[in-house]
Amino acid sequence: MEFATxxxxxxxxxxxxxxxxxxxxxxRKDSVYRTGRKRGDWWKWKVDPLTVDAVxxxxxxxxxxxxxxxxxxTFAVWDNEQLVPFTKAYSGLTxxxxxxxxxxxxxxxxxxxxxxxxVAPELVFEIAxxxxxxxKRHKSGVALRFPRIKRWRRDKxxxxxxxxxxxxxxxDVYG
Length: 175
Description:
With 175 residues, the chain is of the alpha+beta class.
């Protein structure tokens, strides 16, 4: 594909999801294909991620240097009056936010299931992801591709989190 301006290429990139693609891979014409991570002559220009607002309902301790902190979270969306888990995310918060969430988990644990802590459904986070698909494995009926925390939605109350119907609509468009 050739292009005359970055704006022209940006328009093409914006159609990527129609082809179930994450974006456009740019490379020099004379570069050779190499396996593994592309560097130098190759550059992946991804489309902006999809996002939803979700409620944290479970937490687990992390690994490595974060093994003493709750850093692995499960998120839910509303299905009528019930919160339904739909994804997990492990990245996206600052170290200070992680410590704050860790304190919240320790003070607001409702129940324990082995290493998992069920917490009071009070915190809302914006979850970013690259794609969405139907899933028979998950209670929600959906699976996300590369979910991660985009930001802590301190400006939202739990009732303002997205719904399972919202996820179904995203499935209809992008699934």
